[in-house]
Amino acid sequence: MVDAGRVILLNGASSSGKSSLARRLQASLDVPFLHVSSDQWVEAGVIPQRRDDEGPFNWVDSMRPRFFDGFHRTIAAMAAAGNNLIVDHIIEYPPWRAQLAQLLTGLDVFVVAVVCDPLELQRRELCRGDRRSGEALAHLHENRIHELGPVDFSVDTTAGITTTLTHTVIAAWEQRSGPSALFYPGGR
């Protein structure tokens, strides 16, 4: 039987630096970690280009909920198969966090809040050009992604993803003790 993989779950607003941090962590860790994100699936063309407000191609009410349900289940399946994962995600809703906690029960999970100054988020969003204007701020102010439950560690990426910042996350991950904050919705 294969030992379950470990999961480093990076939760932050769009354009906060999650993907950049994931790549730096992946390059710096002493054991192999796969970098997994829903954006990778979107970029690979998994989602149909057609998105309607109604019917079977209704993105908001039909396709998107099923997509993220499957994405969350994939994280659990990949880790259960023995893969170490760095998951780059935006946990937008309390039910998503609850589902992840349920699916990842029994696994070694380390939740990292990736925070960034709102003005810097807006600047990055504009520079990227592939995000809806205001998306990052909506994650912070409407979805309140950093208020949905406790985390194991928090890192501020406003100044960028440096070697020091990367090693700080790795040191916190290596020094963790006890179950993940993911499994304690009200805090420890």
Tags for this entry?
Rossmann fold, alpha/beta, five-stranded parallel sheet, 188 residues, CPT, P-loop_NTPase, AAA family ATPase, globular
- Helical content band: 40-55%
Shape: globular
Query: Which segments are poorly predicted (pLDDT under 50) over 5 or more consecutive residues?
Result: none
Determine and state the CATH class: Alpha Beta
Secondary structure tally: strands: 5
Q: Kindly, what is the distance between the CA atoms of the first and last residues, rounded to a whole number of angstroms?
A: 32 Å
CATH T-level topology? Rossmann fold
Q: Using only CA atoms, what is the Rg? A: 16 Å
What amount of the residues lies in strands? 5-15%
Strand order of the largest sheet: 2-3-1-4-5
How does the major sheet shape up? 5 strands, parallel
Structural class label: alpha/beta
What order do the helices and strands follow?
A: EHEHHEHEHHEH
Q: What's the number of domains?
A: 1
Q: What's the total helix number? A: 7
In CATH, the architecture is: 3-Layer(aba) Sandwich
Overall mean confidence score, pLDDT: 90
Question: CATH homologous superfamily name?
Answer: P-loop containing nucleotide triphosphate hydrolases
Summarize the structure.
With 188 residues, the chain is an alpha/beta fold. The chain is 42% helix and 15% strand. The longest helix is centred in the middle third of the chain and has 22 residues, at 59-80.
Topology record:
Elements: E1 6-12, H1 18-28, E2 34-37, H2 38-43, H3 59-80, E3 85-89, H4 94-103, E4 108-115, H5 118-128, H6 135-141, E5 153-156, H7 163-174
Parallel strand pairs: 1-3, 1-4, 2-3, 4-5
Helix pairs in contact: 1-7, 3-4, 5-6
